[in-house]
Amino acid sequence: MNFVDEVEIFLKAGDGGDGMSSFRREKFVEFGGPDGGNGGNGGDIIFKADHSINTLMFYRNHKNIHAVNGKNGAKARRTGESARPLYLKVPLGTQIINAENTVVADLLSKDDAFLACQGGHGGAGNACLKNSINKAPKESINGAPGEEGYFFLKLKVLADVGLLGLPNAGKSSFLASFSKAKPKIADYPFTTLTPNLGVVEIGDDGFVVADIPGLIKGAHQGLGLGIQFLKHLERCKMFVHIVDSSKHNLVAQYLEVRNELSVYNPDLLKRPEIVIFNKTDLVTNEEIQDKIHHFEEKTNIQVYQNSKIYKKNSILHIIKDILDSLKSDDTQEIYDPIS
Predict the structure, then answer these.
(1) What is the residue range of 218's domain?
(2) What is the pLDDT of residue 337?
(3) Cα(8)–Cα(164) distance, integer angstroms
(4) 61 and 102: one domain?
(5) Ligand-binding site membership of 158 (annotated)
(6) How confident is residue 318, by pLDDT bands cut at 50, 70 and 90?
(7) 179 annotated ligand binder
(8) 308 annotated as belonging to a binding site for a ligand
């Protein structure tokens, strides 16, 4: 599986360069005095959100990262060169959690940045330590060590709409039918092993849809593809619940997924949701109408139909209208099981 959405890494900022202890030695210049330069600052380590990166794969093989140290001071009051900051690019939606399990940064937008470890300050040369009492100091000060620590990176997919459903309900086909996303599609469970994103364009506007791998009973305990993908739903503003209408016990299918959301985070149940019966072309019209009537009667939820031959424009506009109504409220609290 190439998708990496959680990784722990160790970071060490650069140490400051040492100050220099030296004295001016020049012909015909008596008592040249101290001329040792200061050390340069060590390099900072800064996380930066980059929209061109989709996973944390790089950090699976680079779990110990060190910034460059500052250069030492030199004679003739020359200051050592300070190291450049080390920028670590991460996908949009990356949370940075410190060793105390505190979320210290949530990089949601392009170019969002967070200073994780500050480089050490350069040490003082003996020229800098000269004063009215000690005019010829022999000592110098070494550079300060750079900050270091372990950090846990967690990626949560950023999308407006999350597709819910049991494995093989047809979520990937639904996503591929109205966006340029190319998810793997096949007639067996767990075809989708990583979240897929698709952009839906409606006129000059649009929204992003995430196809989350199918949930099964016990997903919140790690069964199936487990809790690792449940957290991606926390970023979504609303859900589209896909139900395979060719199966039996459709109410049970629906409630099974809803129960997993409830156990993981009850607040997810408060977000807007529409239910779509998929694969309606595989059953007779009379049968699908009976299933819709039964489902709506038991759940009091309106059902929309979808199949390979069904026009999706109306469904997409319904989703867009719901998202528009949510734009005035961007203060949804994001649940995090770690914090």
Answers:
(1) 161-326
(2) 32
(3) 29
(4) yes
(5) no
(6) confident
(7) no
(8) yes
Residue 34 known to bind ligand = no
The region of weakest confidence among 160-164, 190-194, 195-199, 291-295 is 190-194
Domain-embedded: residue 183? yes
The verdict on whether residue 165 carries a ligand-binding annotation is yes
2 marked ligand binding residue: no
Overall average pLDDT of the 300-329 stretch: 75
User: Which residue, among 319, 231, 324, has the nearest Cα to 275 in the 3D structure?
Assistant: 319
Q: Is there a binding annotation on residue 55?
A: no
Residues forming beta bridges with residue 304, ordered by sequence position:
276
Q: Are 195 and 70 members of one domain?
A: no
Asked if residue 190 belongs to a known ligand binding site, the reply is yes
Domain boundary among 155, 176, 207: 155
Residue 127 reports pLDDT greater than 80: yes
CB proximity list for 47: less than 8 A, separation 6 or greater: 87, 88, 90, 94, 96, 105, 107, 113, 114, 116
In a domain, 145, yes or no: yes
pLDDT of residue 4: 47
CA atoms of 167 and 308, how far apart (whole Å): 18
Judge whether 111 is annotated as a binding position: no
Q: Are residues 221 and 128 in the same domain?
A: no
Look at residue 338 and tell me if it is in a domain.
no
In a domain, 332, yes or no: no
- At 88, which helix (H) or strand (E)? strand 86-90
Known binding residue 88? Answer is no
Q: Is 191 annotated for ligand binding?
A: yes
Mean pLDDT of 53-63: 83
218 is in an annotated binding site: no
User: Was 171 annotated as part of a binding site?
Assistant: yes
